[in-house]
């Protein structure tokens, strides 16, 4: 009976991923997310030749209350709320309040990054994962994480955005800025690739489960 239950679980893909309630698993997820943000700080520091010199904590809760109170419609308030940073790591410029570069930590984006990394890590730990699902999930997760980046740079003359990270990585600034309106589309493509990769992986697991039951 136990073997039959395990076979049914494998057939449905229930054992494809490790338990998501283990503390160690979420510890690795947080470590990866922190490492990604440290990598962005390192990229900005190398590109500008100046490291961070301050961390600015924003009154996030108060700002949210003000936005929700003074915005006439909720639909108008939601985009503002989603772009409100919790804090920012920045490099200041002398004699001006503007930073040379800044990394904004947005709660909504941070939570989304944690979820994406959790799905990616869980899928990666499946020892039966094929190369097709690997390419789809890895590519999709990378695209989504990029779109969740909120980096600002004075050379781009743009509010903190994912395209700034693209420009700092060496992409021509003008072309990078031209990509800014396509962020939601690119994020949707990333999520679609991840979903296709997961479906492919679950399909492979289901076929293996059926084969074991047949034996």
From TrEMBL:
The chain crosses the membrane at residues 25-44, 102-123, 135-163, 175-200. Keywords: Membrane, Transmembrane, Transmembrane helix. It comes from the Bacteria. This is Uncharacterized protein. It comes from Magnetospirillum fulvum MGU-K5. The lineage of its organism: Bacteria, Pseudomonadati, Pseudomonadota, Alphaproteobacteria, Rhodospirillales.
């Amino acid at each position: 009976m136990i073997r039959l239950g395990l076979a049914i679980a494998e057939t449905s893909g229930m054992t494809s991923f490790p338990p998501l309630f283990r503390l160690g698993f979420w510890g690795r997820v947080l470590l990866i997310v922190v490492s990604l943000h440290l990598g962005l700080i390192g990229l900005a520091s190398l590109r500008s030749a100046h490291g961070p010199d301050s961390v600015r904590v924003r009154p996030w809760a108060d700002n949210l209350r003000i936005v929700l109170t003074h915005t006439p419609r909720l639909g108008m308030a939601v985009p503002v709320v989603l772009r409100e940073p919790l804090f920012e790591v920045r490099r200041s410029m002398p004699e001006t309040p503007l930073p040379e570069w800044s990394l904004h930590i947005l709660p909504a984006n941070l939570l989304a990054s944690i979820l994406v990394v959790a799905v990616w890590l869980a899928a990666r730990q499946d020892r039966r994962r094929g190369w097709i699902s690997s390419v789809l999930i890895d590519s999709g997760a990378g695209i989504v994480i990029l779109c969740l980046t909120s980096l600002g740079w004075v050379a781009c003359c743009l509010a903190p955005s994912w395209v700034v990270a693209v420009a700092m990585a060496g992409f021509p600034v003008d072309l990078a800025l031209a990509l800014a309106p396509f962020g939601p589309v690119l994020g949707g493509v990333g999520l679609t690739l991840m979903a296709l990769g997961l479906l492919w992986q679950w399909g492979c697991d289901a076929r293996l489960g059926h084969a074991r039951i047949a034996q």
